[in-house]
Design goal:
InterPro entries: Cupin_2, HNL-like_cupin, RmlC-like_jellyroll, RmlC_Cupin_sf. By secondary structure, the chain is mainly β. It has two helices and 15 strands. It has a single domain, classed as Sandwich (Jelly Rolls). The protein is 8% helix and 43% strand. It has a six-stranded antiparallel beta sheet with strand order 1-3-4-13-8-11, with no helix packed on it. A three-stranded antiparallel beta sheet has the order 10-9-12, with no helix packed on it.
Length: 145
């Protein structure tokens, strides 16, 4: 359900907004928030609830791995977008699960008129690392409506 009202959205966002995502702010257009759900390094799978203000999106990026790896997104509140390079964007609503294979360039974020949250899970892999690329331009983003 789309919502611009942060108070209403916060009631739907069952995993919590968390703190300002300052460590990765350079890779986002707009404000995002991070609420880690597991501790770094324990267990082997990292989970975090990522919240995006309306219009916020991360840069194009790639989860590299020689074997295994990638990312899974579990959409929990609000509405957003996911797009792989060379493909049409996919609308995200609560309950949507996106499996992102390793080595696939993509981005994800909120719709322009809604707050959005998803749980991000980094899939373990050999020599796994993240590469941040260029921002999603305002022109690319505006085409999504």
């Amino acid at each position: 359900m789309k919502t611009m009202n942060e108070e209403v959205f916060s009631k739907e966002n069952v995993f919590g907004k968390g703190q300002a995502n300052t460590a990765y702010a350079q890779y986002f257009i707009g404000e995002s928030f991070l609420n880690p759900l597991t501790s770094a390094g324990s267990p082997a799978v990292g989970l975090a609830n990522v919240t995006f203000e309306p219009g916020c999106r991360n840069n194009w990026h790639i989860h590299h791995a020689d074997k295994g790896g990638g990312q899974i997104l579990i959409c929990t509140a609000g509405e957003g977008w996911y797009q792989e390079e060379g493909k049409e964007a996919v609308s995200l609503v609560p309950g949507t699960v996106i499996t992102i294979p390793a080595n696939v360039k993509h981005w994800h974020g909120a719709k322009a008129d809604s707050w959005f949250s998803h749980i991000a899970m980094d899939v373990p892999g050999e020599n796994a690392q993240n590469e941040w690329c260029e921002p999603v331009t305002d022109e690319e983003y505006a085409k999504l409506g």
